[in-house]
Amino acid sequence: xxxxxxxxxxxxxxxxxxxxxxxxxxxxxxxxxxxxxxxxxxxxxxxxxxxxxxxxxxxxxxxxxxxxxxxxxxxxxxxxxxxxxxxxxxxxxxxxxxxxxxxxxxxxxxxxxxxxxxxxxxxxxxxxxxxxxxxxxxxxxxxxxxxxxxxxxxxxxxxxxxxxxxxxxxxxxxxxxx
Amino acid sequence: xxxxxxxxxxxxxxxxxxxxxxxxxxxxxxxxxxxxxxxxxxxxxxxxxxxxxxxxxxxxxxxxxxxxxxxxxxxxxxxxxxxxxxxxxxxxxxxxxxxxxxxxxxxxxxxxxxxxxxxxxxxxxxxxxxxxxxxxxxxxxxxxxxxxxxxxxxxxxxxxxxxxxxxxxxxxxxxxxxxxxxxxxxxxxxxxxxxxxxxxxxx
Lengths: 178, 203
What we know:
The structure holds two protein chains of two kinds.
Chain A: H1 3-13, H2 17-39, H3 42-58, H4 69-97, H5 115-125, H6 129-140, H7 145-152, H8 156-175
Chain B: H1 6-14, H2 23-48, H3 52-77, H4 82-85, H5 88-102, E1 107-113, E2 116-121, E3 133-139, E4 142-148, E5 153-156, E6 159-165, E7 171-174, E8 179-181, E9 193-198
Antiparallel strand pairs in B: 1-2, 1-4, 3-4, 3-9, 5-6, 6-7, 7-8
């Protein structure tokens, strides 16, 4: 964490909104990428990203300077994405069963994504959310298993196991791509 | 590319980029965040600034609840509610009320079945304050009674089902092979019989 960032955090805690906007600018692309990979939708990723930063601001007092701000943000973002995913899953199941026209916008943005990206995205969305989280954190964001375990609040062994299972599923899903 | 090894898979996954956003999106996002923060701060300010009169009411309500629990406990000890206890819904509601006193906003479900009574708690006190629901599900293996909330899940014959309520207070149980609603429209429950209703918190 740079001294600039430390200063921004301190001033944000004191109510300086411009300092917090600087923090948002510093981390917004990282959080957006995580939210997009977890949700599969650009529109949902926007909402999730904005919500993450609002929650981070609310919880600023709980941030400990001995840890990385980005890791702390990751944790907030990932928890929010996982909870969001559970709510959407329950709502979508109910819509299907009662044959209500489902107007949810969780369809990936196929118009701007090439076919391969779309296929990978589809495969990722078929994973259970915690397995997807392990893939996103380690393969896309480059976290170690230990760092991912801290973000996901689970053991390193659990992360390793989820990765193993997720990779196996993804290989199977992606092998079927023509 | 059909990935066979972990390395091949990782390479393939990394080829899937996050769609680009226009620059003005990144310029506006920080401001949108702080606008939302200011809005929420304003809303929270109207709740936090309670008058002493409301504080007194909260205290009085709290004492009232404690008094009711004490009376219920005494009545139970003296066997004066045995008639009430014969009604399973009342019994379940009472059990829930007592459990909620010990674990406020943490109870996900209380299950009553042949193996006894089990309580399922959330790790944090973050359960919503929605009305508790009583469910009775009877099948070939016997009956299971549950006190839970809209948004939770129950297991019926190995099938995980969502428990939901609609705006009219009707209870819906929905799984991969089962659909049931308390207002009996389009129910598909097979060999299972389901009863459900909202119950009232301690009173």
